[in-house]
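Whether sequence alone determines local backbone shape is best considered at the level of individual chains. When preparing material for the folding task, we compiled for one chain both its residues and its backbone structure tokens. No coordinates are needed to read the tokens, only the vocabulary itself. For completeness, the protein is quoted in full, as a sequence line and a line of structure tokens:
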Amino acid sequence: MLIGKKIGMTRLFDETGIDFPVTMVEAGPCLVTQLKTIKNDGYSAMQIGFIDLANKKITKPIKGHSVKTKTVAKKHIKEFPLLNDSITAGAEIKVDAVEVGQLVDVVGVSKGRGFSGVMKRHGFHGGRRSHGKNSVMRAAGSVGEGSDPSRIWKGKRMPGRFGTDTVTVRNLEIIKIDTENNYLYLKGAVPGPKNGIVYISK
């Protein structure tokens, strides 16, 4: 129920001196840009936006949508289940909507690594480096069967595009909340590069 921007990783210490690897996320403030109702849309949900959209990028459909709901056009928009019935269009959702110690799920897009080989993409150990072998050190090796079935099995791990996948990390604990700067400190790693957009839900 929050859209955020990944700032980076650091570590925090507790009272006993134990340190925790944490990811800093600038979460919100998010604006409720639309409410979906069972009567009008067939389901109940809230649409929230994050980061104001530049004027030169506001198209007529976006402008009409924001005028209809009396809100500001946002760059990133996402639907979440409705938190409670008291929320209205135009309301702000900040980091105080969550609590320290709470477990949240974070969805992000992993770093893109381009077209990668089997060692980088799947962790293959590569070919042998001795006994006359040449140029097979990072090769995939044999990939197909013989006469039967005369094809490569579906799902075979091979070179290809690596990264830029939607990744969900579940049950990350909130270690600290900075309400002044809208920062969340989540224990562990969050998918994506710095300044990548992530979606946080209970």
